[in-house]
Specification:
The chain starts with a helix and ends with a helix. The longest helix is centred in the last third of the chain and has 27 residues, at 126-152. By secondary structure, it is mainly α. Helix 1 packs across helix 3 (64-89), helix 2 packs antiparallel against helix 8 and helix 7 crosses helix 8. It has helices at residues 2-21, 29-45, 64-89, 94-115, 126-152, 155-162, 165-176, 183-201.
Length: 202
């Protein structure tokens, strides 16, 4: 939770700043305010304990510097990918761009799986393979939609809106997976919703 919230928040910040400085995107006050509200909402959604401290899976507050460095690095990679894709779809078909963006990680994963000792597909139950493939279809659809969004909207705004995914994930998990919805998560959902509306209106 800590890693996801921190990385997503940094991605929103880096994308808005990079879009403004590098791509010349206009960032309205409403968009900046909406981004800040979404960041606060993501924090609340991913908050773990009553004390409000972020803890690792073993319950200890260790490795903060390493986790922070990893979050910064991942957010920078996401931002670089966003800027490159945004520049690529300006004079290209978004569907073709989505195909290329998807092929590169697929090839990378395939090479990594064949060259390493990672578990093979044979070690996954048939019903789980079907679930993973279904998840892949949804990710593919989101990739195509993301490419089209970049074609018609500023990179920073697209990053802000797509980074509100925890809002939908937590609600769908509550409905379909019967996961517990805490008061903090409910407040985070409300803040994310308000932030999304502010960005759209901005």
């Amino acid at each position: 939770g800590w890693t996801y919230a921190t990385t997503t928040s940094l991605f929103i910040l880096f994308s808005l700043v990079a879009g403004w400085l590098i791509l010349g995107d206009d960032v309205s006050g409403a968009t900046a305010m909406g981004a800040a509200v979404i960041v606060a909402g993501i924090y609340l959604i991913n908050r773990r304990d009553r004390a409000g401290s972020w803890r690792s899976h073993d319950g200890r507050t260790s490795g903060l510097r390493l986790r922070t460095a990893m979050s910064i690095g991942i957010a920078l990679f996401w931002t670089a990918g966003l800027l490159a894709t945004d520049l690529g779809v300006r004079d290209a078909d978004p569907l073709a761009a989505a195909v290329l963006v998807s092929v590169i990680p697929a090839v990378f994963y395939a090479v990594l799986a064949t060259r390493s000792g990672l578990p093979r597909l044979g070690g996954i139950a048939a019903r789980n393979i079907r679930r993973v493939l279904l998840g892949g279809l949804f990710f593919a659809a989101s990739g195509i939609a993301f490419a089209f969004a970049l074609k018609f909207e500023a990179a920073g705004v697209t990053a802000v809106l797509t980074s509100s995914s925890p809002l939908f994930a937590i609600v769908l998990a509550f409905i379909f997976l019967s996961e517990r919805l805490s008061l903090a998560a409910a407040a985070g959902i409300l803040l994310c919703s308000m932030g999304v509306v502010a960005v759209i209106l901005g």
